[in-house]
Input
Amino acid sequence: MEKQLRVNKEQLTYEELLIRDLNLEIILEAMAQKDRFIYEICKKHLLTPLMKEDEISARQQVRKDCKQYPKLFRLVYEYVSEGIEVAKEEEEFIKPKYNQTIRSEKRLMTQSEILEKKVSYLYKVCESLCQLKEVVHSFKMQSLCEELLSKYSNSFFYEVEDLIKIARKIKEGAIIILAGEIGRGGKYTEVELEYIESEKKEVKGPKKYLIGKKAKREKVISLDYSALENQAEEIREAVLIEYIRRFSSLNKEIGYLFEALKSEFAFYVGAFQLEETLREQGICICEPTLKKECDRFIFKELIDPGLSLKKKQKTIGNSFIANNKHLWLITGVNQGGKSTFLRSIGIAQLMAQCGLFVTANQYENKIFTGIFTHFTDSEDEMMIVGLLEQEIRKMKYLISMMKPNSMILMNETFSTTAEKDGAQLAEEVIEALKESSIDVFYVTHLYSYAQKMSLKSEKDILCLRAMRQEDGTRTYHIEEGEPLKSSYATELYYKIVD
Output
């Protein structure tokens, strides 16, 4: 019985397809260096290409700062990461059930202790940002440092220190001194907090509170009247709750700041770690040039960084200069480097559009509105629709998300059916994609389709071929050339069985 593919509801998402088809996992692991947060942030950026030249340039400039001062960038990342760990205590603390069973004094102390820890990390962060401000060149990082150092200046830390001192006084049993009037019905009116007395004042007789008049002339009122006593307790509780609110607000503010900084710096730390790993293996990198409108696609010695990382050595690169080409048709020998070449283009464009470097000596291209992959699926035991149907469903899903000026990398698409049918499907789909201003990079063994396209001699079609030497040795070079009827599969067969 024919095996069937998964239903559409379990179709891999656009992002999952990119990761699988381009083997991005190994690149992300090199960026993360076992830090899961860096992995997720870099994954998010890599799969969300930027569309504006200034945004790409801004990220490139910050990355250059990180390359020059990696220690400072790492310090900021480490400090905010440690500060966030402190915030986990607050998350436990602010649960409703917990709040209802803890006295206000204890809640205030907990918030105060959390704030004290967070502020200690914030101070370290500001010290590092102060150093960064003096050395970085990027406008984005300069602006970030200036904004945060202005907001969290010495006066901010002094104010927080004063708040923490108040909490300590309350913990030590200090008296809260209020100013107000006793109005009609024996109710307190116009009550304001005067100050908190650090030392207890002994008063004899029934339970007493210190109530100051507006003129700040202090007098002791004996609270024989239970209504007054209850009001005083309520006022004292209100004062504590107000301080809890202030501490909680500061804790949340600093927590949000740490989260934002961690996300911001994680990407640049990850980029630096990837660059370090690649350079250690002798892999060349360059700063790509991307333009909104560009008809030239140039790359020199472009390689697939994932393959190089896997082999732990530099792999063979390819070079091309192409003008106004919208269909790249790649044919040639089996195991000749076609899929690797296709991946190298997709990875390079993703890296370039998220502000990263590219593993080439030169890379120049336009900015695409979307980058898509359509690679063949392997069979498995969970299939419930045919391979061809799955290919068509996946293509329909991808097309639904495409916009003009997108690019799609197609690897052996429509090879799961007879060549005649596959060629017809390929021609219809690719023609529709081109008419929608989608650039297509297509690796195929559908010779009848490839030959038909090459004979058209259309100026926007570039025919490429994976090369081999006369003895059958694969060169892994992709060069311009017309499609050949044979992919030399028998050579590969005899090489393996012999």
In short: Confidence is low (pLDDT under 50) at residues 1-9, 203-223. Residues 53-281 form one domain. The radius of gyration is 33 Å. The first strand starts at residue 175 and ends at 182.
